[in-house]
Design brief:
Aminopeptidase; 10-stranded mixed beta sheet; Ribosomal Protein S8, Chain: A, domain 1; 243 residues; binds coenzyme A; alpha+beta; single chain
Length: 243
């Protein structure tokens, strides 16, 4: 378990993550109960843990220890080997001065994230987290930020790149509500594929299973389901009483 400084700062109270868990059902249930007890002692008020697919016993132990299910994450992948496409003139790298516009697009886009579906987390914390996430990508965490309509962006995609694994990853993609359903998301994904083709062998992207629009978008761009995971949260009694 470790404190998550980014989440803690955005929400204004200590939040931590359980990085890994192992054990049969009875043993892991005791471990999770102990984790909750220690979190209470230290003053951590929120815990998150991700359970990879095929581990139903761990998921059951978490629920018995007081955690609740918030999210099913699905990770899609596509090969970039041999990918070829013409450059799209309407998609360009983000330009100076566009950060606030991208933050506004992202703020209206992430109603299904685990921070928003958790009823014990205050909505303003989730908004701060979205703003800070985009600002971090902008400040250099992203290898690439592309916008659709370079003059007045209606959407953007931010990618990470791991040269050692020859792997590119979509960290964030969003299209403003008024611009959805017109092929903008697809063009952003395909332009990202073009950008990395020759340098990366595959593109990876994760989303929520319930995010039908994103799932359809990635499938339409040639991505296939690679793996999935369940996310559980635990909230301290005062948070549960408050929200
Ligand atoms: C997901 C998102 C980026 C899609 O952008 P978009 O510009 O509307 O998508 P497109 O118009 O390019 O659609 C691409 C494909 O996905 C399908 N699709 C897109 N949104 C859909 C929806 N809500 N329901 C069903 N299918 C959808 C389209 O039909 C299209 O498939 P087709 O080519 O086979 O017809 C956009 O809805 C969005 O910003 N959502 C909020 C942010 C978000 O969820 N981001 C992903 C988080 S990981």
């Amino acid at each position: 378990m470790a404190l998550d400084p980014f989440d803690s700062e955005c929400f204004g109270f200590p939040m931590a993550k359980i990085e890994a868990a192992e054990g049969d059902e009875r043993c892991s249930r005791e471990l999770f109960r102990e984790a909750v007890r220690r979190a209470g002692e230290i003053g951590w008020r929120h815990l998150a843990v991700r359970v990879p697919d095929g581990r139903p016993a761990l998921a059951q132990s978490l629920e018995r220890a007081g955690f609740f299910w918030v999210d099913a994450t699905v990770v899609f992948e596509r090969s970039l080997v041999g990918f070829a496409a013409e450059a799209d003139p309407q998609i360009a790298p983000a330009a100076e001065g566009q950060l606030r516009r991208l933050q506004a697009i992202a703020r209206g886009a992430f109603a299904q994230s685990r921070y928003q579906t958790d009823p014990h987390l205050p909505p303003e914390g989730a908004r701060r987290l979205t703003d800070a996430w985009v600002a971090n990508l902008w400040a250099g965490r992203a290898d690439l930020v592309l916008v659709a309509d370079p003059v007045h962006p209606v959407g953007f995609v931010a990618c990470l790149f791991d040269p050692a694994r020859r792997s590119a990853q979509i960290d964030l993609i969003a299209v403003a509500e008024e611009g959805r359903g017109r092929g903008v998301g697809r063009r952003l994904v395909l332009e990202a594929c073009r950008h990395y083709s020759g340098r990366a062998d595959r593109l990876e992207v994760g989303t929520q299973l319930a995010n039908l629009g994103a799932v359809r978008l990635y499938e339409a761009c040639g991505c296939r389901l690679a793996r999935s995971a369940l996310t559980f949260h635990w909230a301290a009694p005062d948070l549960r009483a408050r929200w």
